[in-house]
Specification:
Layout lengths: L8 H15 L3 H19 L4 H8 L7 H8 L1 E6 L11 E8 L2 E8 L5 H6 L7 H16 L4 E7 L6 H5 L2 H12 L6 E10 H5 L6 E5 L3 E3 L3 H8 L6 H8 L3 H6 L5 E3 L10 H20 L4 H10 L7
Parallel strand pairs: 3-4, 4-5, 5-6, 5-7, 6-8
Antiparallel strand pairs: 1-2, 2-3
Helix pairs in contact: 1-2, 4-13, 6-8, 10-11
């Protein structure tokens, strides 16, 4: 059953009316209601505030990394383990093809359902997850295979065990080594991009964000707790932090914004997957046609630091 947020309730009622009209075989009513639904979707999604975009980025029906992998890849198989400690299920790595193009996909996976969410640690990677990602990236570099990274995490896991096994070092190592990989790299924020947990697989030739995603140094809830010691200030923190794609693009912190289907990725997974696939293939061609793309990547990274007051 689809989940509807508070500001999507009108869409829910219209969808229920459409289903009722279909059961009555009232085709005329179905056509009218579908047009009403399309108009309402345009109205709702053209007037979203930052907090509503945050809610969409976290929408439970939003596609996760494995959803996209299954929709855009073929002849694929999973690569496990960091060869040091264990396999971290919150980061998934696949080798396969996208439209015949060999590719490695590295994604952060939140999981669906209580049991799977626990297995995936709610998409919060441990250091061995980042080490697995780097190991697979180095393998891709060895065999000249481009890399697609799908970012979707509230942040790296902050537990004691993760810190004991070198969480900050693992993230820092990824930042350093991903910046110098000699293969094209494309990173897309598909939902939440939280702190260093996101940055660890976000250093790339192309860094893009889905239209209804966020990218932040801390969660809005964490920001509200630190600044105001008041969890009710989350909406104010969301607006103040400037974490939406348009604001980050204006600050030159991301390269592109990927438009989602009219009803959002959470209502049209297949459509969103096709858009991501097209963006990846187009970006890959651009990078391959760019002389000294590794040096260009480094120059871009060194320009980071601008801000909007």
């Amino acid at each position: 059953m689809a989940t509807y947020l508070d500001f999507e309730q009108r869409l829910k009622f219209l969808q229920e009316d459409i289903e009722s009209a279909i059961m009555r075989n009232d085709n005329a009513a179905v056509d009218i209601l579908k047009q009403d639904l399309e108009n309402e979707i345009k109205k709702v999604y053209s007037n979203l505030n930052d907090y509503q975009k945050l809610q969409l980025a976290r929408h439970p029906d939003r596609p996760y990394a494995l959803d996209y992998i299954e929709l855009i890849m073929h002849d694929y198989y999973e690569i496990f383990g960091d060869r040091h400690f264990r396999d971290d299920k919150s980061i998934v790595c696949y080798l396969g093809k996208i439209d015949g193009e060999k590719v490695v996909v590295i994604g952060e996976e939140k999981g669906r359902g209580t049991k799977n969410k626990i297995t995936r640690n709610f998409g919060m990677p441990h250091p061995e997850g980042y080490r697995k990602a780097l190991r697979v990236a180095k393998m891709a570099e060895k065999f000249d295979i481009p890399i697609l990274m799908l970012v979707d995490t509230a942040g790296a896991y902050p537990g004691l065990g993760a810190e004991e096994r070198g969480q900050s070092e693992a993230i820092a190592k990824n930042l350093q080594d991903f910046s110098t990989l000699n293969v094209p790299t494309i990173s897309i924020v598909i939902g939440e991009g939280g702190s260093g947990g996101a940055l660890a697989i976000a250093v790339a030739d192309k860094l893009a964000m889905m239209e209804y995603s966020i990218f932040s140094v801390i969660s809005p809830e964490g920001c509200a707790a630190i600044l105001w010691n008041d969890p009710t200030k989350t909406e104010a923190a969301t607006k103040a932090m400037k974490i939406t794609p348009s604001e980050l693009k204006n600050a030159n912190l991301i390269d592109d914004i990927i438009k989602e289907p009219i009803s959002g990725a959470h209502r049209d997974r297949a459509g969103a997957a096709n858009i991501i696939k097209s963006y990846f293939l187009d970006s890959l061609e651009q990078i391959r046609n760019t002389p000294n793309f590794v040096a260009k990547r480094y120059e871009k990274i060194m320009r980071y630091g601008s801000f909007v007051s």
